[in-house]
Amino acid sequence: MKTSTIKFLAFVTAFFGITTIVTAQKSYNLDSKSTFSVAGTSTLHDWEMKSASGTGTASINIANGKLTDIDALTITLPAETVKSEKKSMDKVAYETLKTDKNKNIKYVLKSAEKVNETTWELTGTYTIAGVSKVYKTTAKTTVTKDGLNLQGSNKITFTEFGMKSPTAMLGTIKTGQDLTLKFNLNFNL
Fold first, then answer.
1. Is the pTM higher than 0.90?
2. 8 Å CB contact between 184 and 149
3. What are phi and psi of 171, to 5 degrees?
4. HSE-up of residue 18 (Cα within 13 Å, Cβ side)
5. Contacts of residue 188, Cβ cutoff 8 Å, sequence gap at least 6
């Protein structure tokens, strides 16, 4: 009797162990609450442009309410969904981004390294204005009941992506070279 009980318990333990391994990695979709922004300076004022129109997926592992692995992450943001409060500024931004030929801003993860329970070092390729560059990004993570939240930012420059800093009013207003990309991503089942 004891032998059959031990075998049964071993079977149950093995079954649940295999089930946990098989179902631990899941594909999550970017939800509509995700936000993106780019901020910079000019000789007139600081500025920020925002979008909530990105799409993407993440292949991640969550075990016991904790993020254990990020296997894949891809984000696509239609470039002309990034908007300021001024249409004239948007027009100049789209010319700078070369949206006539490059409709999307993209991010593709190359690798992810866990720093601690809530911080990850992501290495990935940004493609902006048709130019691709690899950056490291420190991302803060929060596991929710529905999925995962990732927040972070990157400092870039216009020239790194083959763009010229925009100017206005015959060059009297000049945009600073440095930009800050920010993201607040929510991935849900």
1. no
2. yes
3. 85, 0
4. 5
5. 28, 29, 31, 146, 147
